[in-house]
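seq:
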Amino acid sequence: MSFYALARPLLFTLDAERAHRATIRALRLKPVGTPPASDPRLAIRVAGLDFPNPVGLAAGFDKDAQVPDQMLGLGFGSVEVGTLTPFPQPGNPRPRLFRLVEDRAVINRMGFNNGGQAAAHERLLRRNARPGIVGVNIGANKDAVDRIADYANGVRVMTGVARYLTINISSPNTPGLRALQDKGALDALLAAVMAARPAGGPPVFLKVAPDLEPADIDDIAEVTAAHRIAGIIVSNTTITRPALRSAFRGETGGLSGEPLRDLAHRRLIDFRKATGGAMPLIAAGGIASAEDAYARFRAGASLVQLYSALVYEGPGLVRRINAGLVKLLERDGFASIKVAVGT
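struct:
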């Protein structure tokens, strides 16, 4: 039995947000070393970046860029910090984070709680010389008069400390934010974002919601291609509610974890079709095993991200997924993960 399996009952006696804060504090005490070597068959180049393996940590775990190197040390091929807004904000009232244990799921309505881009910039500047791909997820302040300006300013501020940038317009917990996925608004947003990105700056990804209609998907594919966005992260949490067993099933916010898996997988297929395979896709949502990740690669993802599964599986999950991916590649006769993408 793993250490996490023994510790999990104790952690689960704590409120979910308190447990998460305790986890971050514990990780900050962990010595920072060189990230472990990955099997070379898992290496993949996406958007001009060389990922040692395709399994990344999704945004939301390390909102304030406090432990990116500790998470890389667990075996992640990349870590995405944030969501970071221009100014600090407390987020929504507590309680706002719920474990749905019976469903292996999480509902959150955090509301972009973070200490602001300036504080995170200082932390990331100090770790800039260290190895590993650390991306920055950018959002807008809840009370922003001009949200597009918030995103453009975020790109300017964080460019120097991010290996890639993610534009997050798909959180359901900031009122009106998802409206930026509409074609006209998205066109204006991405024009401003790409104008703010300096020549030779980090690649820009767009993170979208799973709760989209076919016409929305086609529009997003068209606009992202027009602005030469480097990739699309499919997807954020869902506001839909499949059949759930937990007593927390009625809580508002974004649902993630196992119940999101099939919806996120379908949206990945939709975006693969809409983009014609011409744009890298990063799969997120309900990935908890090597089999889950492998299915996304076969469906067209170049990378995957996870977060909620760590709540239930613990920090050893990423190594198990990477080891399992190697076995699946061997089983199917693929020489590398990049060969398996879209097959």
